[in-house]
Amino acid sequence: MHPMLNIAVRAARNAGDLIQRSADNIDRLTINQKSKYDYASEVDYQAEREIIRVIRNAYPEHAILAEESGEHEGNDYVWVIDPLDGTTNFLHGFPQYSVSIALKVKGKIELGVIYDPGRDELFTAERGGGAMLNNRRIRVARQASLQGALLGTGFPFRSEEHLDDYLAMFRSLCAATSGIRRPGSAALDLAYVAAGRLDGFWEIGLKEWDMAAGVLLIQEAGGVVTDFSFNSHYLQSGNIIAGNPKMHQLIYQHIEPHVTDKLK
Ligand code: IPD
Ligand code: CA
Ligand code: CA
């Protein structure tokens, strides 16, 4: 394993342990309302501090982009961190949340780690080295039709202006597939696409830290990721479609008719 992946795994596991230790004391946590639908608990901040401590200890010259503390200056190596993806789930005792850490070098995602501390599932990927779940190789699903497919998605609950477009996409895909799930941790949803548990995924308005590790996992597991214009600007736009090559194309066909200018 690449030494930097080792560090990312250590950081993710430490953060995950910290999150799990607080899972039984949710009622006692201090919660900060960042905006109307956006919360961060003291656990989000503690987990982020621990991840940054582990990374900076090993690589003090690297830069960091972290959800809660923003940008920390450094060289061309940028660690992209979501210390707790699925905070709303966590705060309700709904056991679907994760830690997500990726490393970008000169703008390219080189490694990714997503850790589900509740199930002790560790998803890892290195560019060119494949994708793993608990050290075993994973691949995207072989599904080749929407009929019988299980998709994942996220609701644009923070941006009402996208709700009508989203619901039109949902209506179209809902009628064509076996089922759609909204588990509530985008990073874990992407990891599930990489592992073949979901046949595809789409969401509007994600942030870079929700997606970076999951994107590499899917690519290394044989899948395809694009934005809503079939391009690779998903980290910038936050709009993402993912699946194996065939599923990706089929999902895109249902989304494309509802992509208004503000979603391009
Ligand atoms: C959220 C989750 C959720 C997605 C939201 C994200 P957070 O991340 O990934 O699935 O739908 O858009 O903000 O706030 O829990 O880190
Ligand atoms: Ca997130
Ligand atoms: Ca978060």
Rounded radius of gyration (Å): 17 Å
Q: What is the annotated CATH architecture of the largest domain?
A: 2-Layer Sandwich
Number of strands: 15
Give the class from helix and strand content and strand pairing. Answer: alpha+beta
Spatial order of strands in the largest sheet: 4-3-5-6-7-8-9-10
Low-pLDDT residue spans: none
Q: At the third CATH level, what is the topology name of the largest domain? A: Fructose-1,6-Bisphosphatase, Chain A, domain 1
How do the SSEs run, as a string of H and E? HEEHEEEHEEEEEEHEHEHEHEH
Within CATH, the superfamily of the largest domain carries the name: Fructose-1,6-Bisphosphatase, subunit A, domain 1
Any idea how many domains? 2
User: Averaged pLDDT, please?
Assistant: 96
Fraction of residues in helices?
A: 25-40%
The ligands bound in this entry are: D-MYO-inositol-1-phosphate, calcium ion
CATH class of the largest domain: Alpha Beta
**Ends distance:** 38 Å
Work out the strand percent: 25-35%
